[in-house]
Design brief:
Number of helices: 13
Oligomer: single chain
Helix content: over 70%
Largest sheet: none
Shape: globular
Strand content: under 5%
Distance between the termini: 27 Å
Number of strands: 0
Structural class: mainly alpha
Radius of gyration: 19 Å
Number of domains: 1
């Protein structure tokens, strides 16, 4: 675990040494802040404070931000040849994958942490469902975890960062749009399967304040299998090289 943490902190330091972390924070807080306060004005009409607009905007924002964070994780090292140097040390493929995943997840966690003032401000404006808010934050973290896993897998199978970004988005589109659309147009067991594979279904369930083990298992399963595929891709590259 120490090796994983060292890799994670190295990646996190890289984010802040470059402009990546600052651009992410500014764009995330800018987008979510603008839309949250634009659509939250009905608080004075309904008499009920809610962060639902924030979670809705964040749902779309992280769909693009997670691939942008992960696209360089392994693709850059594959292109530069530094991945072979890293793997010749006493580090396993799984530790490399897990360390890079953890670094990205912490970066997302930091950006979410910076949105806490929104929560406090809305709380001061009127009565708020605290359980739903914290469940919404949990939903964002779980969803981001799944996207990060997908992004790292995409980054492990190419040497080009842009290609990794596009592959990650392409896979994400299935979970965000296509499976949900198929679930609405088919019937029977197929509809249930497609509906279960839709990220929207599970995210909305958690964001409403409902903690269901099936939703948590869904996001964790995507994360685990994506990272497992990334480890397999690294192992194949090592065999070839």
């Amino acid at each position: 675990m120490k090796v994983v943490w060292i890799i994670a902190t190295k990646e996190l330091k890289t984010f802040f040494d470059s402009l990546i972390a600052y651009v992410l924070l500014v764009l995330f807080l800018g987008f979510t802040g603008a839309f949250t306060w634009l659509f939250i004005m009905d608080i004075f009409l309904s008499g009920q404070a809610s962060l639902r607009p924030f979670f809705e905007v964040s749902y779309w924002t992280f769909f693009f931000f997670c691939p942008a964070l992960t696209m360089r994780m392994l693709a850059e090292e594959n292109n530069a040849g530094t991945i072979e140097l890293l793997l010749t040390k006493a580090v396993t493929d799984w530790q490399v994958v897990l360390g890079k995943y953890l670094g990205c997840l912490i970066m997302i966690g930091i950006s979410i942490l910076f949105s806490i003032p929104y929560y406090i401000t809305v709380w001061k404006l009127g009565p708020i469902d605290h359980g739903a808010v914290w469940c919404g934050y949990l939903g964002l973290i779980l969803m981001s975890s799944a996207y990060i896993g997908i992004g790292i897998f995409a980054s492990s199978i190419t040497n080009n960062q842009i290609v990794a970004f596009l592959i990650s988005l392409f896979i994400g589109v299935f979970f965000m749009f296509i499976f949900g659309a198929l679930g609405g147009t088919t019937g029977g067991i197929l509809a249930e399967i497609f509906d279960y594979l839709s990220i929207r279904t599970h995210y909305d369930s958690i964001a409403r304040g409902v903690i269901d083990s099936r939703d948590i298992l869904f996001f964790l399963s995507i994360t685990f299998f994506s990272l497992l595929l990334a480890e397999t891709a690294l192992a194949k590259r090592n065999i070839v090289s």
